[in-house]
Structures are given as structure tokens and as C-alpha cells.
Amino acid sequence: MSAGRTAALAEQLRAQIVDGTIGVGEKLPSEAALIAEHAVSRSVVREALSRLQADGLIRTRRGSGSYALTPPTRSTTTAGSAAVGGEAVARTPGERRALLEYRIALETEAAGLAARRRDAPRLRLLAEALSGLAAAGDHPADAVEHDFTFHRELAASAQNPHLLRAVDALGPAMIAMPAPRLAHGGSGASTTAEATAARHRQVVAEHRTVLEAVVEQDPQAAAAAMRAHLTASRRRLLGEQDVGTDIAAL
Questions:
Q1: Are 237 and 73 in contact (CB under 8 A)?
Q2: CA dihedral for 155, 157, 158, 164, sign (positive or negative)
Q3: How distant, in Å, are the alpha carbons of 87, 103, 231 from that of 99?
Q4: Mean pLDDT score of the chain, rounded to an integer?
Q5: Does 78 fall in a domain?
């Protein structure tokens, strides 16, 4: 009985996040509120939240609560930015597009500088983050964390404190996934699972191309690889069919 209630609560909260009823950066109702509203036990609420966190949909902070983490691309929520524990996030597709444009400008330069200035310890951290990302195909929450760690370590490798602060200000919420993966939690029909796996392999390959250019100390190649990766991310996230010559390298 409790398993069924857990699944039902998790799916209801998932639907509210995916359709934008709970906007990105918004705090979910407290445990007490969920218990009272849904007439379930504390263990049911905690297990449901644990499932959502494992799927990369929420982020729980001790003493603060749980927050919607990944923006649904078909959101119809009102405009305006939110913050998750100090992290800047975007709610609407337009804001997500603007955020990706900002990231392209910021991280393309960071990648080029990282190729010039990287050292052995940073290269090890970048390789570890990439390895973690590659192994996290079935775990969206882990994928988000490893993906962000890679981008953060790249900014740190640029040895410019302003670039690093900019990435830190965005936080893990800058890493987003297309709505179909959120709706199915990385599972579902075999075609959906195959598409998700293919997309994950492509994302890993794009990160690997960036890292290879940094290892080779090729600033132009590193910058181009980062631009190609983030432009492809924009296409995947927003469903853009024509993004011009930015994706010519893909």
C-alpha cells in the first residue's frame, strides 16, 4: 500500500514540475504540508522526494527544503528568474535561451583560457568529472552534478576568478535536460530509453572533445568545441531546428 502511495505522490509532484505548476527554483511544499494534503505518512513523502531527487528533478538542502531543479522546456510559467540557494536559474524557454547565450559567451572564452593555463591537477579533476558523467547515463541527478563539475573545473582552469565566480553563481541549475527525459525519469518506453541513451553519449562526446583540446593546449579548438557543445545543448533543449553556422562542427 505504501509503495503505491509513494509512486502516486512522486508522479503527481513530477507532473507539477514538468508542466510548470511548480516553477524552477520554487520550493516544494514542506513534508508536513505534503503529509496533510495527501494523507500519507512521513516515510511516503521522504521516499517520493528521494525518487524525484534521483531523477534530477529536485534538489534537497538540509535545513532548507526541496527545490525544483531542472526547467521544463515547454514551461508556461510566468516570466522572471528564480534562485535555488543562491543559484541563478531560468523559468521560461526564452530565459533558458538567454542563459545559454550567456553561457556560450562566458564558457567559450573560459575554455580557450583553460587550454592555455591548465595544469596537471586540474586535468585530473576534469577527467574525473567526465568519467563520472559518462557513467551517469541512468542517473539524471548524478549526470547534472558531474556535468556542472566539469564546467566549473574548466572555469577554474582558466585561472580567472571572475569567470569562476560567474559559473558558481549559476550553480548546477544551469545544467538542464529536455522535458521528455524529465517526464519519464530516464525510463519508460524502449524508444524513449534508446533516445535518452543516445543523447547522453552525444553529450559525453562533446565534453570529451573539449577536454582533448584543453589537454593539447589548443585554445582555438577548445573554444570552438565549447561553442559547438553549448549550441548543440540549445538545440536539444529548445528544439531549435535552425541555429545557423554555430553547429557546423557537429
A1: yes
A2: positive
A3: 13, 6, 12
A4: 82
A5: no
